[in-house]
């Protein structure tokens, strides 16, 4: 998933989110800080939220079942992965990926996980802190190699299952 895909997804789900929260178009426009006309245009696929407004919608409506089902869990994970795609950052502790995540590799307390819905990856340390997130598993492997000082095995799924 790329930023454009994320924005398109939020554009498509906006009306469902509004309905889920029982908001009229007038009230939703106030909540988002946009005009009703703009909201109507977005709901009719004539305009787009854009990255900034898509992030605002995902933050304001982070508890939306519609969003959680579309993304596969915590919406902030995907926003963070997209926002910091080319930036190194210290991430806070996660819940460890007990839902919506598949551990594809683990070594020396580190785990590479893939989100079941968005397919993005993250590298967690032994305390479930996100070390890195990316849509490219090779980026994640590169970070892991730097951290453990050797090349992880290429057949990742078998390593986890054994």
Largest sheet: 4 strands, antiparallel
The percentage of residues in β strands lies in: 5-15%
The gross shape turns out to be elongated
Determine the N-to-C terminus distance: 30 Å
The level of helicity is: 40-55%
Q: How do the strands of the widest beta sheet line up side by side?
A: 1-2-3-4
Structural class: alpha+beta
N-to-C SSE series? Answer: HHHHHHEEEEHH
Tally of DSSP helical segments: 8
Q: Regions with pLDDT < 50 over 5+ consecutive residues?
A: 154-162
Q: What Rg, in angstroms, do the CA atoms define?
A: 18 Å
What is the count of β-strands? 4
Overall average pLDDT: 84
Any descriptors?
alpha+beta, four-stranded antiparallel beta sheet, 8 helices, disordered C terminus
Overview of this protein structure:
By secondary structure, the protein is of the alpha+beta class. Helices cover 49% and strands 14% of the residues. Strands 1-2-3-4 form a 4-stranded antiparallel β-sheet, sandwiched between helices. A hairpin with a 2-residue loop joins strand 1 and strand 2 (110-115). The protein is elongated, with a radius of gyration of 18 Å.
């Amino acid at each position: 998933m790329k930023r454009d895909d994320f924005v398109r997804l939020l554009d498509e789900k906006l009306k469902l989110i509004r309905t889920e929260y029982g908001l009229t178009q007038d009230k939703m426009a106030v909540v988002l800080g946009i005009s009703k006309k703009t909201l109507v245009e977005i709901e009719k696929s004539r305009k787009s939220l854009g990255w900034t407004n898509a992030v605002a919608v995902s933050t304001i409506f982070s508890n939306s079942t519609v969003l959680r089902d579309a993304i596969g869990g915590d919406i902030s994970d995907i926003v963070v992965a997209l926002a910091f795609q080319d930036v190194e950052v210290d991430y806070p502790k996660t819940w460890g990926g007990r839902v919506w995540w598949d551990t594809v590799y683990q070594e020396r307390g580190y785990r590479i996980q893939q989100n079941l819905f968005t397919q993005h990856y993250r590298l967690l340390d032994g305390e479930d802190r996100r070390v890195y997130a990316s849509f490219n598993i090779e980026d994640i492997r590169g970070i892991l190699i730097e951290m453990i000082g050797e090349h992880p095995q290429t057949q990742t799924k078998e390593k986890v299952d054994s």
